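Components:
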Amino acid sequence: MLIINMIANILFAVIALVVSEGESAEGGLLSVNGGLAFWTTVTFILLVLLLTKFAWKPILSALKQREDAIKDSLEQAEKAKEEAKRILAENQNNLAKAEEESKKIIEQSRQFADNLKEQMLKESKEQAQKLIADATEEIERKKNAAFDELKNQIADISIKAAEKILKENLDAEKNKKLVDKYISDISKN
Amino acid sequence: MIDSTTAIISVDSIKTAQSNSSSDWILHHVMDGNYLDFSPMGKLYLPHLQLFGLDISITKHVVFMWLGAILLFFVMTRIAKAYKTSIVPKGFTNFWEVFILFVRDEIARPTIGKGFEKFLPYLLTVFFFILFGNFLGLVPFSATFTSNISVTATMAIFTFLVFMFGGIRNNGLFGYFKGLIPHGVPIFLLPIMAVVEFLGLFTKPFALAIRLFANMTAGHIVIYALISLIFVMQSIGWAGLAVPLALFIYTLEILVALIQAYIFTMLSSLFIGMAVHQEH
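Structure:
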């Protein structure tokens, strides 16, 4: 407490000093000195003019230029990003299209191949059938021919056999006798 | 009761101490003089000058004002040169750019609004001039020219002139003074408002001048008063309390140096904004 009092008292004393000093002839803290005001005016005006010309204008324009450059590059980056996105989308689109195309081509060729296979199969089957049919016909024909020949031969053989038997039993004389006998039999009746 | 009596005793003791020339050093350090004080190495006396009967002697504060101005000019032209080679700031330039951008984006742009670029050179000069002055005052053996009422008053008058001319240029002579009185004031209040607003024009720079002067002076006086505690109590033991406290005030002064430069510029900018765009 004593210390705080002491400090406060000294501060009061200083304030009193400042105020009383203002009243003295020499000029206190609160008295305005014309010479200093004059020099302040001169210095400050010169400073404003010189700094405006040599410092503030170049600095501020450089800052503005930099801000514009940053803004421009950001905008450009944004634009480039958009462009890249667009190109990517386009590429993806193209890729999808190409894939579809290739799928279609594969599908078409597969179908073509299938068709071809089926056709070839069908043709070959047909041909085989035809061959079989031809062969069957030929066989039939040959069989018939063979039968015919066999029939003829059998007929020939049987005729010859009959001829032989007949020749043996019925030669002319016997036949005559036989005929005569029959005639006599008939006449007798 | 005890407090007031001790206060009276203290005043008396300092007043009597003042009469013997060894102890009025507080005011000698704070006030202007026609010498540079390098005590205990001695004093360097400065020349007296006269111009049309006006005493324009080169004083301590004039010297430090010039020092600050030259330093400021040197620093800022160097920065301007640095921007010429590359608009990407480095180290030194980067440090000062923070302040320049602060004045532009945090002070001038929001308070003045449209057309703030015209006042920017003035505000930047005010800010850095005061900033350099305040920090120059913290250097040992130097003096704070911003703690002199003559300097602060002159600066305040400049602000006054800038916002008056800015307002008149933007709104016209008649329009500016008419615009001082806010809209929708009842008729019977008009004379009072006119007087109040007209006086308000002058209290603005007055407050600016007193604020900067008082803030810059007070800190120094407190430091000196704390140091003088050792001599008033006539015991070296008080240094244990006085020196750390003085050091604390000194660091506080660094803060105050920044804040006062900001406040002076901010208020100047605000007054300019109010004068230029009266509709707000």
